[in-house]
Design a protein that fits this description.
alpha+beta; four-stranded antiparallel beta sheet
Length: about 60
């Protein structure tokens, strides 16, 4: 299912056993991010923390 943020962002998450995918697009900046892994996060707190750090690291702003 697609998620639509209050500030215009569009995103999708998904996965099958053993994989996790996340994508998002911000139409106001034209910036999109995709994270595809062969690691499952369900019930794995360490993986969630690491994915959050990666997701933040691949954020980009046009001002940068």
């Amino acid at each position: 299912f697609w998620a639509f943020g209050r500030q215009g962002g569009i995103g999708h998450t998904g996965g099958d056993p053993g994989i996790t995918t996340i994508l998002s697009f911000d139409p106001s900046t034209g910036v999109g991010r995709v994270l595809m892994t062969n690691t499952e996060v369900d019930g794995n707190r360490a993986a969630v923390v690491q994915f959050a750090a990666i997701w933040s690291a691949i954020a980009w702003s046009p001002e940068e």
